[in-house]
Amino acid sequence: MTKFLKATALGMLGLLFFSSCQEEPQFESYLFAYFVGNGPGQEAIHYALSDDGFNYYALNGNQPIVDSKSISTSGGVRDPHILRGEDGLFYMVVTDLYVPEMGWQNTAMVLLKSADLINWTHTVLDIPQLYPENFGEVNRVWAPQTIYDEVEVKYMVYWSMRHNQDKDIIYYAYTNDDFTALVSEPKQLLFKDGACIDGDIVKKDGKFHFFFKNEDEGAKGILKAVSDKINEGYVVGEEYVDQTDAQVEGSGTFQLINSNKYILMYDMYTTGKYQFCESTDLENFEVIDEEVSMNFHPRHGSVIPITREEKQALLEKWGGIEGGVLTVNGEGVKSNNVVVDEQAATIYIPVSDEADISSFEPDFELVPWVSVDAKGAKDFTQGSVSYQFADGSGNEKAYEVSLSQDNNPVVTGYYADPEIIYSEKEKKYYLYPTSDGFTSWSGYYFEAFSSTDLVHWKNEGVILDLKKDVSWTDRNAWAPTAIERKMDGAYKYFYYFTAAQKIGVAVADSPAGPFVDSGQPLIDYKPTEDITWGQEIDPDVFADPVSGKHYLYWGNGYLAAAELNEDMVSIQSSTLKVMTPDKTYREGTEVFYRKGKYYFLWSEDDTRSPNYKVRYATSDSPMGPLDIPADNIVIQKDESQDIHATGHNSVIQIPGKDEWYIVYHRFTRPKGPSMGRSAGYHREVCIDELKFDEEGAIIQVTPTLKGIKAIN
């Protein structure tokens, strides 16, 4: 008998023995294994559960289920892939990599084995150490996955590797029976021109469908190859299977329980989202994002079906009450800003000043395994109210729930870079922010809000859509500024905006738009030949009450200024001047005039940094020179209130009064600091009072949760 026939016969006997000793698992739920980011502590294995394959809830309060340092050489693991084995055990493989210290180079992966999805044994495989002759110069070992080879009767691990600066190639190797070692040297699995990573193999109707990320120069996303054999003969298709123009990676495929439908999911790593697509043939895919929800932000993971018993065991281990309160809803509740303090057992609910806290019924949004004894409205005027929460395992915990009427943030949702004006025509204030919540600041439209009291704001809708209204670009809608001007007896509104790192201008007859773009950028060049850094962004328009002239300021890394022509849609080039204050200047200029002084405010640091702050200088002229005070911080973070990254502001004066307010953005609170650099894409607009001393110096503002009271 040949070795092949002998192995096949033994494998069939093994399968017959396995099927005779164990019943087929009855699947009822789904387990999602994932990691959460590239920052410190974020490269670790996390778990989430779903009953339907579409709506997922993090276990263990979205904390790791195993210490990365205990199973890896680097201190970080990522790209977890779990396989249910033919023997009823579970096999997981992960990338051994800690990006904060190693960048994007590593040499090892980790093999893990478990009988219950909870307790794992592990083995680290360092490829250059194991195979120094042919793989001694490998510097990337990425995104391993496992599949069972019915012919070889072995588990096959496949992953991408790179030698020196060569292209990334997907290899495979078989493991020993203990899943602790490879039994042969790696061999190339997928042959194609150019690089490829993140392989994912699915068997359907006798064929092996191999999804992978194409890493060619200018590559778009995920391709698929097909073969009749698990370890050779893959023919690469020409059509991308991902259904987005965004950059994607980390595809994972699973079949819905008791269904002929498959889910193809992938990590949209530049937008901070995960996309799900549905298919019955693994050829045609339909996006179903509206059916999907998660109370966490996953990166490159995998989903497997699990039984009721396995789900219950996971809940008993990592379910619990902590992390069970997702947020609180209800009339006037600022749901994004609810603070659940597990250690203190408190829940802080910020509400608008219109909420009736004497008779208020919180609508607790909970994970499926947690319940709360909450019946009817309660009186919160005398302080906190106790609520009892329980999980499905008999555990209970009391939380003290309090309400606070907070006016910050001033509008619901993610917005940044706020500009504010007062319209004499409408006798209202108008707020013009950047639409935020888009990773890498990839928003493409602007909205406006109106108010009569600076506290209660009405969304006036989209006033300028780059994709519809602007001919010269359709991306990166940032940091607008606006001004009202009476011309020829009629009010006109000039809206200067950043798009594609250029500055445009649009005009309207109403402060709520619609605005009509001029048809070309106003600023798309560096102010001088000597300046080769920075971006042409963050405009600010200023009407000088002394001279009656109008000025435009802009810049990133430098501050440029020029006088506007009478038409307000062009500048006097001869007046162009660079007036960068000092090395703290980053962006976000704001200019205003008070009692004979011109004030110049700007933001320091990166908007993704919690240390983002505002500084200022003064001048006797709208074109400088600038006088920078020794103590010139206008506003900065207040860690005692968990307020971070207070910057990119505008300033408003109450007409006819020496009463001033600063409008700025901050990280979303309380989740911002835990979001890493993506907090810089999830910002909120706030307003606080701006005061001056007797000499006209700005008194440093302490950012608040309460905000301001409605003005008369």
TrEMBL record:
Secretion signal: which residues? 1-22
SUPFAM superfamilies according to UniProt: Arabinanase/levansucrase/invertase (SSF75005)
Q: Which UniProt keywords apply?
A: Carbohydrate metabolism, Glycosidase, Hydrolase, Polysaccharide degradation, Signal, Xylan degradation
On whether Signal is a keyword of this UniProt record, the answer is yes
Keyword tRNA processing found: no
Q: Which Gene3D superfamilies does UniProt cross-reference here?
A: 2.60.40.2340, Glycosyl hydrolase domain, family 43
Xref: Pfam families: Glyco_hydro_43
Family of this protein? Belongs to the glycosyl hydrolase 43 family.
Protein name as annotated: Family 43 glycosylhydrolase
